[in-house]
């Protein structure tokens, strides 16, 4: 005999294909949706509309990329919308400093947005990891703090009239695709590499899986947690810049409810709310589903209230479909 | 109560996160400082729909023993019970911004004076500028505020009045919940579905900002005309460039101050009722007739 | 010579429990030192102190003469102490290689994983524990308990076990084949002069592998002796304070009617073929033997409906029953004690009493309300019968020692009084004294007319317990052995047969 | 040894006191808060104000009671605010049916509200348990469906002018306490009995801890899950009635964001977001903390934006304090 574990090869191959299928599951839901809208709304497949959809999902995609880090490590970040507003108004304030040359002001503004985002994220991570308190509550607190700060620093006013050179980015295109979307995609790809190819990424999955086991292996989950939330925060900072360049305003009440959209993209994409399982590929698909749904129903001329009802139903349907895919792949495996 | 020193006036606002109400409150505070002789206690609520929070605010003001309340109600009926209780306990109440429902007031046996603009008339003024610019048969859409919000309803009605009067064709009407980003997305999609849109009526300036960006992104600047409501500072450049054809200033910063004035009159013994209309001004952008 | 490890006056208390009390222990450089004792005696507690998980309330520790005060597992690992804990601590969504190398993932510049080196190192480690055919990139979830245990062991073998290698019941889930492989590794490490601490309830292993053995009882050291100077019966006496009567094989009652039968049963992952046919009668204890991965667990789970409706037919009392879920199975009077107590058997954070009653709630309820006293009484009763060491029925199951957790799982199914009881590795981690009690208890159950189907990786256990043994090999029955013909050689021969291609014996 | 349970009595007493301490932890935070406001805001301790606070927390308390069931079983319900609006407008519509005598109409309205709530909750539970999909997404979908339906049935209009007999309840007092608060308290007490004393409650905790072990013990977690979400829904139906009787209107946009407040009360109260751990006593304290905080800061005259910032900080502080309590009790134990 000696063939110790004789039939492992087979299930392994199965498992590989199962992984592909896993992402494909929600992809099928997306394809179905696209096919439906292509038939139901003539303009849906047009180039402009595709480009519009990509523009519309850009901010959610960036936030969801960051949110994926927080959720994978077993946490959640409810503060992204409010912190985004804070980032935007801080960046806006800096960019409008007359004392500085335009380029410098814009550069500093971007840096400030990133800085605020990272600081808020790291603080979320620090408080929840250091005192071992649920990130749900910590980030709920941060939501209030950030929103209050944003209102306080602007006194509830909208900041507007930014340098044209900066605003131009918001609507620029490259190879027919919105530059901002390409940026979001690049960020997602970077995140994917980090999550799947680096020690930091593996640590995130590991902590989300079994934090105790990570500790027993001689690691300190604390550092990784703080860093993961800082990544979420960095994405928020970037999203804020994208917002300002696209809409050329920064106000303290922007981003209300964006956290739910971002979380929805992550969870529809198959990432487990309890951490440790999921991928950014899923998040991309999840964000696109949400975007396509909003766009397609308007193109079809569905009225507001009915649109909201259908949106709810399709979100549920997508994950239900996904569960059949999971069952199928389980019975195959 | 008034006998015991300077009168206290509570000012109950809606969400101060809204620029309009923030202005209003600051106007009131400035006015209190200028005029003197009374103490002003301003309070706000977290969100537009936080009726419960506003009732709590009214109750808290009563706890603090105010002599008068100036209130911008989050709901034209739900706030009446606590306010009516206040009136019956001798506290003077002046209603600003959105009027209490007359029937409900009658039922509760109170008649509270309303100081405020006519949103519907204002929207009609703004809409008429668009009607004039497009001429009869012009194709327009409305981007609405929060469904269920009184202002949103009044402004939509006003726009519809202008559409009827000006012979315009309304091809779509959707909400963007007062928000810039959502207005940008929603209008972009409306434009895809109806490439022949010639004009937009937005229920507030924040949404107009997003709509103008969507028009620019399509390269249709000038071809699609926009009117809106509120006259916040951020739309100044749009008015100057003509990207925004018109908006309406309801002098929010004076509204609360006016309300306080009336409240002081009541404390002084007068009994005010009915609608004390405040000024509305049409602000026209470049290119408006 | 200074000992490698030295413990002086170590004490550790938990609420209501004194886990360790004045423990003095010296582990010499290069020796393999066994810790023995009943369930809850404090063996794992010693190890958790060494591993930096808990801190002693009293006493001092020294490593190679230096004071040793680990504040966290990190410190312990840095000091060169490597531990295979009694319970699995794997990361299910991560790959085999990542789990193996998790303490220090091979990295390149910028924190990137060095996947090639990872595969290579992982392969080498898998090789050493006999998992050569497992792909390093496969995720750990979906692997059997035994494979997971081997991965835990392989993990600790990296860098040749560090300075001190601690193994806490490493063989509890392994069949003789894997255990043998492990012993080869231990011998090789011994030859290299590595210091080891070995915990096991299998006395034979202790005598075969270890130089000295320390016996713990109720958190105190009873004796430390060279294995050459003692004997298994003496050790047992030291552990439980009395001799263990040599036991006659368990004898069930008069064999009655057919209680459970399966026809053309095809469990999950079963090879193509006609499926399995067998029956168990009332009063009978039937064993299922096989190597790890032979599919024994899957047979029990299939009958129980744990993986959905079974493919094949299941008969109770001669009548076909439709089983779609475990609830249908229990409704048909079938119980299953699962193999993985942590994930499938216990609600760890809830009390022992709650865990005891979980499969028999109607017995402790009235009109939908819980009868807390009845529940506690049941827990106390079975704790007595199984000699479970717990501070009280309210103690959360997760705070019990491994063996005592297993006893709570057993208590759950005993309390449920299923007419047909299937047990998957029922004595995993249970001490010798209690094991004897449990065998007697199972015998009484059978004598009382229950039908028992037992899976175990310990052949002596099956031989002692069963009336018949079915041998599974690669998902197929390789044969059935009657009590008269029981022998380890015979059964092992059958177990291996499926892996020998055409020349099956 | 074999002396099976040698020292049962002692540790049990230990455990009892630890449990008390557990709830006490957050109670200490509450006491500190009350003491602070008593000093900082003179009117805070007045009878009227106490009664105001109780009235103000009533709805959140009812929703949080229901939410505790959903979270304990390992789920969450994001749809409570929207379903509450749907319940309210359906109840409102029924109550205004002229064909019916007043009493009948009111009774039917209450029944309708309960019915809609229970149906929505059970549907949430059914979909998430049957297809094994995260309740987060299912209830997010339900949020949209219910809100859309509420808007559609009312056409975004407010329903008002309810029978006085019904409205009177909203402001009625008993023994100096608001009747509606007493109702909420009774509901909470009932929930506490169900959770701690019944088989159903036992199942909820067990499933929240380890669903697989429960399933393999011969139970069907499915039924319990559906029922638990139905309980959440029933609480929503009751909250809707309280809303209508208190505010004397029913409109389709009420309850926006109420889910976050309810979840916050539950989590601040020490219930674990991953299920299986927590108690309704904690939820009560959590809801009171949130209420006291909002009320006290207004009384102190803190401006709105600063108030928001402080609210955020205190929420974080409360759970951090609670973590020290947990550490303390662990080291005691
Ligand atoms: N975290 C804890 N809280 C309370 N009691 C504990 C805790 N950990 C261990 N104990 C108790 O300490 C005692 C010793 O447990 P330990 O795990 O050391 O036993 P063991 O000798 O390894 O037993 P086994 O052979 O069953 O593994 C047991 O009574 C156990 O209940
Ligand atoms: N890589 C794998 N992929 C899929 N299924 C596997 C894989 N390895 C093992 N299995 C399944 O799990 C079972 C292995 O479980 P385990 O190692 O516990 O062996 P067992 O015979 O089922 O039980 P026991 O451990 O009691 O011997 C195999 O029978 C097989 O069906
Ligand atoms: Mg142990
Ligand atoms: Mg097995």
From TrEMBL, chains A, D:
Record's keyword terms, sorted: Cell membrane, Membrane, Transmembrane, Transmembrane helix
Topology term for the membrane: Multi-pass membrane protein
One Pfam family, short name: BPD_transp_2
GO terms of molecular function: transmembrane transporter activity
Segments traversing the membrane: 20-41, 53-73, 80-97, 103-122, 129-146, 166-195, 226-243, 249-268, 280-299, 305-324
Keyword Transmembrane appears in the UniProt entry: yes
Protein name listed in UniProt: ABC transporter permease
The species this protein was found in: Lichenibacterium minor
Automatic annotation (TrEMBL), chain C:
Protein name: Sugar ABC transporter ATP-binding protein
Keyword Repeat: yes
Any one Gene Ontology molecular-function term assigned to this protein's record: ATP hydrolysis activity
PANTHER family for this protein: CARBOHYDRATE TRANSPORT ATP-BINDING PROTEIN MG119-RELATED, D-ALLOSE IMPORT ATP-BINDING PROTEIN ALSA-RELATED
Organism name: Lichenibacterium minor
Similarity comment: Belongs to the ABC transporter superfamily.
Claim: Cell membrane is one of the keywords in the record: yes
Annotated compartments: Cell membrane
Topological type in the membrane: Peripheral membrane protein
Domain ABC transporter: 5-243, 255-499
Domain of life: Bacteria
GO cellular component: plasma membrane
